[in-house]
Amino acid sequence: MCGLDSDNWMTIVGVVGDVRSDGPGRPPGPELYMPFEQHPVMANELRIAVRTSAAPEAMADTVVRKIRSLNPEIALKTTTMRAMVADSVAAPRFRTLLVTAFAGVALLLAMAGVYGVMAYLVAQRTPELGLRMALGSAPSGVVSIVLSRAGMLAVAGLAGGIALAVAGSKLVESLLFGVKPTDAAGYGTAAVAIALVTVAAAAIPAWRASRIDPAVALRQE
Length: 221
What we know:
The protein is 59% helix and 0% strand. The protein has helices spanning 56-70, 81-88, 90-124, 126-134, 139-167, 184-210, 214-220.
């Protein structure tokens, strides 16, 4: 028995899969499909879905003309499924673009920060690096010293960033759809991105360190 508009028993003729009628971000709720002829009270708003291989806009005009020929006083509004889906995800999509923009700016700032720190460290350790090269250290060894130092900074930053992200994951849970706040793939992708940015930012200071003239560096000391 439905109980919405009648106390008569209803016969169940089929069961369908879950449908996210309220948007992709909300879990599907209980829903009934009932014939309009048997439940006229619920027939104040009728929606017709038409599947077509042609352009939906052209088919909409045909459907409107057909309905107008049956009853010209019916209020009509047409749209496409693509437009409905786009409207339902407009706000989440805007938030995603906004967060992506902030993340991109943060990544650029992190890259600039790593470059500045590594350039400063190379400048401070120029005499030491020159002495190493004077004693026979290869340029590749100097590069590895600089990159290892950058790697240590990246590991420390990743450890702190992951800890803060896990602690604040509940704050962004409502903005996520189909992804857990502690998604391992997401954290792994971020870690790889940070590692690549660190290597890119430290590459120029490392290359400059490998080009140090030992004689000039020792004279500075």
